[in-house]
Amino acid sequence: MAAAENAAPGMVDPAIFERLQQNIDDDAHVREELRDILQKLERQGNKNLPVTIVLFCVWLGGGGKPQGSLPTIEEVGSTLNVPTNVKDRDTFHITTEEYLHALISLIEELARLAVNSVTLGDYQRPLQISKFVKDIHAGFQILNLKNDSLRRRSDSIKYNVKKIEDVVYDLSLRNLVPKPQESEKRARLD
Question: Mean pLDDT over all residues of the chain?
Answer without folding.
Answer: 84
